Please model this.
Amino acid sequence: MLILYPAMNIGNIAEYIDQQKIICAVVMQIKKQRIRLLTEYNREVNLSAGRLSHLSTEAIDTTVSRDSLVRSLKQYAASRQKLSKQVNIQELWELLHEDEEAIDLDTMTSFCFDPPILPDHESAVVRAFFNDKLYFKFTKESFLPNTPEQIEQKQNQLNDLARREQLILEGVSWLKALSEVVSEPLPPLPNPEIITILKDYYIHDKESTTAADARAIMSRYGTESPHQIFDLLVKAGLWDLHENIDLIRLDIPTTFSDPVLKAADTLIQHHDDFINDPNRRDLRDVPLITIDGQSTLDYDDAVSLQKDDDGYILGIHIIDVGFFIKDGDPIDRNARLRGSSIYMPDDKIPMLPANLSEDLCSLIEGKTRPGISTLVRLNRFFEIIDYDIVASVIKVHQQMTYSEANSLNGEDDPITTLHKIATVLREKRMKAGAVQITLPEVNLWIEDNGEIGISRVDRENPSRMLISELMILANSLMAEFLGRNNTPAIFRSQPDPKQRLFQGIEPSLFLNCMQRRHLNRAVIGTRGEHHSGLGVDAYVTATSPIRRYYDLLTQRQIRGILGYEPAYTEDELQQILHTIETAVGNTGRAQFLRRRYWLLKYLEKMKGKSEEALVLDARRDNFTVLLKEYMLEWRISSSGLSLKPGDLLQVTIQHADARRDQLSLFA
Model:
């Protein structure tokens, strides 16, 4: 606000606004448009003349002592503030607002005080209107009455500000009380809105809609660290020490609604109509085997091998989830929102309710299930003669873990033959240009006692390679089947690598890491195209319909070809793809971030430990290295080091903080 004032002289009493407060001062020096003032708080300030809110025509003697000047200024300020209390702004508004005209300071002062009008009266008017902005707004030199609608709006804003201020004060008080408590009992929880404000700020940072309130609470409490607030929320029992913030930030559902659970219960009660379906091939006598990890509870694929006079019949059997879950039903709509199951070291969030994913829709040993079976006829040299994709009735005869399958090596054992078949299939893909990245995998899990378990898994071990190759075969054959029937589906393709570093299987860890960096991103589309990484002409993923919604969609397209339901049109598939794109991306990100959290948590206890690292790239200020034991990439300073990509070095873990996503390595 700026009020016009007469000619300025040394000794004039001036007022300006600082930190929402009117300050009384005396002019000590004038230099063009800059003035030096002595304030009522015995402080000298320099500011432009445009900053003044009021300038008096009267002056005081600046030759007296500084203490005398300050005393005089305090008296002026107190007198003017007292006078301002006599100004009834609401009455003035009721008198003046219907004219809807701006009023200058002289006129407004004459409405407020009887003659003679003094500078103190003008200042009192300015102070009164400064302290109550509800009824009038200041222009450069006048007061304009607000409309009734504007007053209502401003009153609501003021009420909201007052309420927010109360929340801030209560939040600060609660945090201080909580931080001072050493043991039970903890202070009572504050207004739930305060908890929401603090949580939202930790989760979303500046994107939180109440970030300003959170920062105000934190500032008055005495911290700028959101992590300190996190610790206090844990202390209050509002969050767990290992709270999965990413699930909240990404808005990923972790439970199922009552309608979804009720729909799943209904399916459990009515599920055996497929057994007498004349269009399904009864394969219950074929010995199906599942091979999975030790902790697996949801089995969506099984394999079989039968000998005949000309060679073998290889079967890859997938649970027919589409038989149970129909497009648009409550379970389907919920699965579409989730996109896929999420597997983390400390938790699993299934795409389907547990009584479906781990029971009705799972290939459990001895249980009869509906299936979609890919039956491949091979000659005795394991070359593909032809194949058929059929709806089936299946039953798993044996469930095995990877380690159990690895221990079988008898010539007559089907696992041994399946491994030979897988080897031939891989060689065929390699000749077709497949890029085989062979990097070890680090598994993490949480023991019952809370300890973090960790192990390196060779993804090239016989049973894992076997299952991987058979699933690639099934998916590529289903892609061919869909293309042959001119049916759109969720196809995956991949352009050729930006650079090819090796052919076949390469044992070098460095070259595998580099080759992975040179791969182009896979592309999702509704028509089949070449997948260079796998070395196949077309590819879909349809072997995990329990876990991935993409796979369920593709399975429905196959069911459409088999006559069980109308297949989606290309436009319908494109629309669904657009709808679930974010959910699919978020599930992958949540899975990656949680695994990273627990790996860093494990490294928190490794302070001072030396680890071998592989240099992946070298820049002017830093190197990217791979901690080989943990397959974790991180940056280290290049100061004092002369290294090139491919070099090995020893690094020492100095510090790790999972919650802050920090790791310090010293070379």
Remarks:
- Residues 89 and 380 are 101 Å apart (CA to CA).
